[in-house]
Write a structure and sequence with these properties.
Two copies of one chain form a homodimer.
Chain A: E1 13-14, H1 27-37, H2 55-69, E2 78-81, H3 84-95, E3 101-106, H4 110-118, E4 122-129, E5 132-133, H5 135-142, E6 149-152, H6 166-179, E7 182-186, E8 211-216, E9 228-231, H7 234-241, H8 244-249, H9 254-265, H10 268-295, E10 299-300, E11 309-314, H11 320-329, E12 332-333, E13 335-336, E14 349-353, H12 359-373
Parallel strand pairs in A: 1-12, 3-4, 3-6, 6-7, 7-8
Antiparallel strand pairs in A: 2-9, 4-5, 8-9, 10-11, 11-14, 13-14
Helix pairs in contact in A: 1-9, 2-9, 5-6, 10-12, 11-12
């Protein structure tokens, strides 16, 4: 019987799995946190929680983020959610109605696209280049459409790994103000940087009222916790906090909040994040070198400076949906480009995650992938 | 700084708090479960979970429910949610669009009404008598409206405590088939029975495709776990399981699932439920006697056979919104009737919860309430 989403056949190297390897998960840290919190002295987190989320956690998270972002974060501007996906669904529930336009990047995170579909939203995608989403393209589209939301993954984008430049961040925030739409910035990879620090997050604009920044412990601690947050201006935090779902449930995840809080307070999260960065940085180096050896003449990619992913562009004649069948014969798998497209494009692209496997498997996977491509 | 929703002033007896007292929460049980699961040997529940929910948990839950319901439950018909409210919101997201009609009971759970409002649904309420929601009233309204959902709390209803009769259950299920709407049965109080066993749950009709039954560990274990379920036919379970939010999050709450599973497997949940029933049954007796002494001439109520609540009807000239101010002067509080009405009615009614306080406080609360009423 199965417990978890990732379940690759033992002889398959599945670059499609966008989650940490089971051996990377901070079981010992969480065991210690569990021992401390489940000692029976304080049972408050077993009852309905505060709607906005445990105040102690929000204070500890604000301190952590202020450091990560090199930009002050106010605990009053944070709402604790059950992960980034839950945050995105809440925002869709409260701010959109079916038929509303949401602007997205091309390519974008495929499951965000499915959440938008579940809310009946009309998705319009805009090009991404080496500096991220192009604000000129946004401005052009604004003459035709009045979007409700713009969904961006500004830092170490899923799937391209691209980071939005600081000037573009400022310009997008300005466009949102001028045209009165909301930017939903999915900043879950922000702290997973392996080279230089990324620019200030879009969260830095949240106080102005047109940016909602989404974060998560899924990428920096453990996905199974289902704990994340929204950073936004007080009026938006109030709207989320006071909705029926959040009031009825008593906040989104008091139990996970209780386990994570001590790790923010005692430095455990920081230490673990440092380890993660070291591990992932080594994997980026190894996979980059292996891809250069095996596929350097057949594919182009940017070496990712953070996040989970390599985004490969093959020659235009390739069809990565068809390639996937050949790859599986070589016992390797990946996410084909069209999955990330909202206009059935990107057929010659594919996404590789380096989060799930250790270096020897990543190298072997690159060899198998090269065989499939040739 | 605050962690939990309930935060009454120390000298106030707040009958409005519809949650277990902090001293009732199974801290020791969860500590043991935490020790067993956070031993570091199996980290699978720290990663993205199976979308439908941990298979082990679903099997254990199916066995538990088969016993509770005296009616077989198939683990394939269960989806693990982040509590009942999250289940209800998922159903609204997937099955409704703004403007759709949802039939509800008058009175009904006020936060469900707010969830419907957040989804832009049109709420039409129908009368409840001693045998629950009246199917004749449903049939009449069906000649005027084509509802998408009918939301009912069939057993130990919130707030009235009323239980829908077996014949009415069958008739409602039949109407749902004939008129092709979905019954969402909020069965969270089903296992909290203090007298005779309730009728078979609406869940027993789930296999036929027009009933989705919602359950939760909030009432029988701990609200802070944020763990519940939907029981439904395979096509509906598939629809929920495959939606973007659930796929992206990797199921709804793998961490809580990991803690609750051993308690279902080792009988801990059953033993705790037996204790809870004994505790709550004694509270019902005590509060019933205290109300009879103090308010027997001013109010009418049914003695609840399960659940969390007494529903009091005062003389029609009373306005319980206004009474609340007087009650607070007596350092007692409650939920006024209009909160549970979707047509601004029930001004002479009020709801008292007996879950939060021990017997001496319930008795003192009844005395204070009587002073306010007189």
């Amino acid at each position: 019987m199965r417990v978890s989403q990732a379940n690759p056949a033992p002889d398959l190297i599945d670059f499609g799995i966008g989650q940490p390897g089971f051996d990377l998960l901070p079981a010992e840290l969480l065991r210690q946190a569990g021992q401390a919190r489940l000692d029976g002295k304080d049972t408050s987190f077993l009852n309905y929680g505060l709607e906005q989320g445990d105040e102690f956690l929000r204070h500890a998270l604000a301190r952590f983020l202020s450091e990560q972002y090199a930009s002050p974060v106010d605990p009053a501007h944070l709402f604790i959610s059950a992960g980034a996906s839950s945050a995105l669904a809440l925002i869709c529930m409260l701010y959109t109605k079916p038929g509303d336009v949401v602007l997205v990047e091309e390519p974008s995170y495929f499951l965000a696209l499915r959440i938008f579909a579940d809310y009946g939203l009309r998705v319009i995608s805009l090009p991404v280049d080496d500096a991220g989403l192009d604000p000129d393209a946004v401005e052009t589209i604004l003459s035709q459409y009045r979007p409700t939301l713009l969904y961006t993954i500004p830092t170490f984008q899923n799937p391209t790994g691209v980071t939005l430049s600081p000037t573009r961040r400022a310009r997008l925030a300005e466009l949102a103000r001028q045209h009165d739409f909301l930017i939903v910035a999915d900043e879950v990879y922000h702290s997973l940087s392996y080279a230089s620090s990324p620019p200030r997050p879009m969260a830095a604009y949240a106080g102005e009222g047109h940016v909602l920044s989404i974060g998560s412990f899924s990428k920096i601690l453990a996905p199974g916790l289902r704990l994340g947050w929204i950073q936004a201006a007080p009026e938006q935090i109030a709207r989320v906090t006071n909705c029926g779902l959040v009031d009825s449930g008593g906040g989104m995840n008091p139990l996970a909040a209780a386990l994570v809080r001590p790790l923010l307070e005692n430095g455990g999260q920081n230490e673990y994040l440092t380890e993660l960065r070291t591990t992932y940085a080594a994997r980026v180096n190894a996979l980059n070198a292996a891809l250069a050896r095996e596929l350097g003449d057949r594919a182009r990619w940017r070496r990712p400076e953070g996040g989970f992913f390599f985004w490969l562009e093959l020659l235009p004649e390739y069809d990565t949906d068809a390639l996937l069948d050949k790859a599986r014969l070589q016992r390797v798998s990946f996410q084909p480009g069209p999955k990330f497209s909202s206009r059935n494009g990107l057929h010659h692209c594919l996404r590789l995650s380096f989060a799930f496997y250790a270096i020897p498997q990543l190298e072997e996977g690159a060899r198998r992938l090269a065989k499939a491509v040739r």
